[in-house]
Every structure is written in structure tokens, then in C-alpha cells.
Amino acid sequence: MGFRSNPKIETVAYPNGDRVQNFILILHATEWEGSLACLDGESLALDFFDLKHLPPLMLTDMPILKKFQEYKRSGKLQLF
Fold first, then answer.
1. Model confidence pLDDT, tens digit, residues 29-75
2. Minimal CA–CA distance to 46: which of 55, 54, 36, 56?
3. CA pair distance 66, 37, nearest whole angstrom
4. Which DSSP category does 61 fall into?
5. Running DSSP on this structure, what letter comes out for residue 51?
6. Using the 8-state DSSP alphabet, how is residue 56 labeled?
7. Which domain of life is it from (predicted)?
8. What is the pTM assigned to this prediction?
9. 65: which DSSP letter?
10. In terms of Cα–Cα distance, which of 11, 43, 37, 40 is closest to 24?
11. What residues are paired with 12 via a beta bridge?
12. 4 in Cβ contact with 24 (< 8 Å)
């Protein structure tokens, strides 16, 4: 439903001096089968949440939620 790559938010500088700019591809699934599994050890927990009952989020997550709401209204790919 959307694509984001904002250098002000997604640029990371590592202690060794390497700098990277992440990009985020946001997908919207309407059907799900199977179970959530963290296979790389990088996450503490995985879960699904109703949009009206979300856990505390990082500030960088808020634009994604707003764009998802716009996607639901328009049905169009969101670039931000």
C-alpha cells in the first residue's frame, strides 16, 4: 500500500562509520494463514493489533498509519 524512504528518518550511522538509508515497503494483507514467528532473534514479540487498540508506537510510525488511512480511503499507492 505504500513506499517510504525519507533520509531524515531512515538514515542510520553505524559506529564503524558506515551510513545507510533504509527504505520501507508497506504491504496490506487481507488474509492471513499460519503463525507469526521470529526466526532471526531481532524481535522480542510479534502480534497483530486492531488499529483502534495499538500499543505505544515510535514517532516514525505515525506517518505510516496516516498513509494507511489515506490508502483505505483512496485505494491508491502511497509514496512518502
1. 888 899 988 888 878 888 888 888 988 887 778 888 888 889 889 99
2. 36
3. 27
4. G
5. T
6. P
7. Bacteria
8. 0.60
9. H
10. 11
11. 20
12. yes
Q: What pLDDT does residue 17 have?
A: 95
By three-state DSSP, how is residue 30 classified?
Answer: coil
> Cα–Cα distance between 34 and 14 in angstroms, integer?
35
Strands 78-79 and 2-4: parallel
Instruction: Tell how strand 24-26 and strand 2-4 pair up.
Output: antiparallel
**φ, ψ dihedrals at 60, nearest 5°:** -70, -15
Per the document, the length of the chain is 80
End-to-end CA distance of the chain: 11
pLDDT higher than 90, residue 7 = no
Give me 63's grid cell: 506517518
What value does the CA radius of gyration of the chain take, rounded to a whole number of Å?
Answer: 15
Joined together, the cell numbers standing for residue 45 give: 514479540
